[in-house]
Amino acid sequence: MKLVLLGAPGTGKGTMATDIAKSLLLPHISTGDIFRANISGGTELGTKAKRYLDEGKLVPDELTIGMVKDRLAQSDCKDGFILDGFPRTVPQAKALDEMLLQGGSKLDLVINLQVPEELIFKRITNRLVCSSCGKPYNKLEFPPAKEGVCDFCAGEVIQRQDDTAETLRTRLDTYHELTAPLVTYYQQQGILIDYDNSGKHSQESVDNLIEKVKAKIESISKSSYVGGNEN
Ligand code: ADP
Ligand code: ZN
What we know:
A hairpin with a 5-residue loop joins strand 5 (127-130) and strand 6 (136-138). This protein has nine helices and eight strands. It has helices spanning 13-24, 31-40, 44-55, 61-72, 90-102, 117-125, 165-179, 181-188, 203-228; strands at 2-6, 28-30, 81-84, 109-114, 127-130, 136-138, 157-158, 192-196. By secondary structure, it is α/β, with parallel strands linked by helices. It starts with a strand and ends with a helix. It has two domains: 1-115 and 166-199, Rossmann fold; 126-163, no CATH class. The structure holds adenosine-5'-diphosphate and zinc ion (ZN). Zinc ion binds at residues 130, 132-133, 135, 150, 152-153, 155.
């Protein structure tokens, strides 16, 4: 299954993607996590990307697309993946279509997570993340069992540097300008579903979304089967 999670910052992409990946045994590819790992590892890519992340701006397409291309070429992505935070611009979406087409495949489904903007502010300013494994937490909704310590890897749970109200405004503006057009892009391909993610995150909400994803993929494959047999 080849999935993309789309949504403004704070709509719960990382949290949902982590849990869907675990349930469906798919590799979870978060471009934000890969950039942050490169920054803390002091790589050349990290050095180039750092100022964009600090300012809440998008890393240039060329760098981002190259990075994703390398990641998707790894063998664990052959049969499926869940992309979280990519694509974020129309050129990135076109590059992704092209990459998959070259390998003879395509995206199965794009999930558009929707959350009202007031709630986004509340979630982001309460957001925490494990500095070792990237597992997301939230001070109000699902804090780690022991304060400051990751439930999964015992790494340090911290607040992200770019999770301030000011940077968030920039990230939301960028989302509306450059990422929101992808909703229409994927609607036109007939592979987009909307999901209201303003409820509390739970295993139930994850299972509910997975059900919807499977049903939609099935209906797409049925309609293309019928279409393919018309002549
Ligand atoms: P959020 O979704 O909360 O904004 P992410 O962890 O997905 O957080 O992204 C953090 C930062 O990483 C972004 O603000 C941007 O600087 C960079 N980034 C992540 N994905 C992309 C992408 N597809 N294109 C360009 N920059 C990206
Ligand atoms: Zn952890």
